[in-house]
Specification:
alpha/beta; binds zinc ion; globular; Rossmann fold; six-stranded parallel β-sheet; oxidoreductase activity; binds nicotinamide-adenine-dinucleotide; seven-stranded mixed β-sheet; S-(Hydroxymethyl)mycothiol dehydrogenase; 2 domains; Quinone Oxidoreductase, Chain A, domain 1
Length: 361
């Protein structure tokens, strides 16, 4: 037996999203149906709508969510009906070459539900990042459900499901920021501000926020930025060097993902420092750097997929820090909206008016 619920779909490239009825099948082996309580609006949902990720319309959007497990399929033992979970888009397989080497955060064969959710006429939906949580209920692989403390506010911990985790992890996991480090973060949207919060949690003493938008820089201070640089007015490389005793930051995180911001990150870092690319570039972008500078400056140039997180390790831990008041996830929520307001939320995101809009069910 299947269920019919309301969900937000993107039917064609660039067209406004619409709320419609979707059909959620009963969970098969290894699957779970989750009643969604909250789902953040992420830039990646907009990328899907604009055709930037694939052409497999219609998409069921939304992927930054928390909810309650309602039903589980055969063989599911890690979660049970009633569990409060944050959904993740990298359910690790445990058997690929990355998993077998003990590096499951790089898993090369992550799992999604095998069955498809559909429209009422049977048209199969492509769920965003294998989740599709702008829906009252969604079907996922059980491994995509990570149990966290149910005392937490769904709208807040749901954000760990994507952008906030990516940013926190870019600093804490990929960048390996540690106490006393100097860190610069270029681009202070949801991801960049989370990187700032992660750097602060990890003990960085100098945290420079760089953005072209003054409002974002004001927000960055709330998350722990010790200095801000508006790169529309000031050369960010010079500014970061000046703020770090003339040498550059130990870790520079590019949370925009454009050739010019990557170049800034590359040159704003100290010798033997680390560059972390967490912003996602588009296919036509290229960069040219003097190879001697790549060699001569030493250190590490890294990319961060989903903050190199391991949901089973990181979601419960970060939820605990949130409940202890040490990680202000609430501060990322600019507004709570309904399912019918996702299109408006995209417009606000596009204009930089929000850090996160979160759909509440
Ligand atoms: N690696 C991952 O796993 C992962 C996960 C989620 C999101 N992302 C990516 O991270 C990036 C940021 O996402 P977001 O949700 O924070 O987006 P956002 O739109 O909220 O924030 C982007 C910020 O960058 C600033 N900016 C734009 N151009 C700039 C420039 N040239 N110099 C300095 N600042 C500039 C904007 O003013 C804005 O504050 C996106 O590319 C997104 O796709 C990556
Ligand atoms: Zn694997
Ligand atoms: Zn996302």
């Amino acid at each position: 037996m299947s269920q019919e619920v309301r969900g937000v779909i993107s039917r064609a490239k660039g067209a406004p999203v619409e709320v419609t009825t979707i059909v959620v099948p009963d969970p098969g082996p290894g699957e779970a149906v989750v009643r969604v309580q909250a789902c953040g609006v992420c830039h990646t949902d907009l990328h899907y709508r604009e055709g930037g990720i694939s052409d497999e319309y219609p998409f069921l959007l939304g992927h930054e969510a928390a909810g309650i497990v309602e039903q589980v399929g055969e063989g599911v033992t890690d979660v049970a009906p009633g569990d409060f979970v944050v959904l993740n888009w990298r359910a690790v397989c445990g058997v690929c070459r990355a998993c077998r080497r003990g590096r499951p955060w790089y898993c090369f064969n992550t799992h999604n539900a095998a069955q498809k959710m559909t429209l009422t006429d049977g048209t199969e939906l492509s769920p965003a990042l294998g989740i599709g949580a702008f829906a009252e209920k969604t079907l996922v692989h059980a491994g995509q459900c990570t149990k966290v403390d149910p005392a937490a506010r769904p709208a807040a911990v749901g954000l760990l499901g994507c952008g906030v985790m990516a940013g926190l992890g870019a600093a804490m996991n990929t960048g390996e920021v540690t106490r006393g480090d100097s860190v610069a973060v270029i681009g202070c949207g949801g991801v960049g501000n989370a990187a700032i919060a992660g750097a602060a949690l990890a003990g960085a003493t100098t945290i420079v926020a760089v953005d072209v938008d003054g409002r974002k820089l004001e927000w960055a201070k709330k998350f722990g930025a010790t200095h801000t640089v508006n790169s529309r007015e000031t050369d960010p490389v010079e500014a970061v060097r000046e703020l770090t005793g003339g040498v550059g930051a130990d870790v520079v995180i590019d949370a925009v993902g454009r050739p010019e911001t990557y170049r800034q990150a590359f040159y704003a870092r100290d010798l033997a420092g680390t560059v972390v690319l967490v912003g996602v570039p588009t296919p036509e972008m290229t960069i040219e750097l003097p190879l001697l500078d790549v060699f001569g400056r030493g250190g590490r140039l890294k990319s961060s997929w989903y903050g190199d997180c391991l949901p089973s390790r990181d979601f419960p831990m970060l939820t605990e820090l949130y409940l202890q008041g040490r990680l202000d996830l609430d501060a990322f929520i600019t507004e709570e909206i309904t399912l019918d307001q996702v299109e408006e939320a995209f417009t606000k995101m596009h204009h930089g008016d929000v850090l996160r809009s979160v759909v509440i069910f």
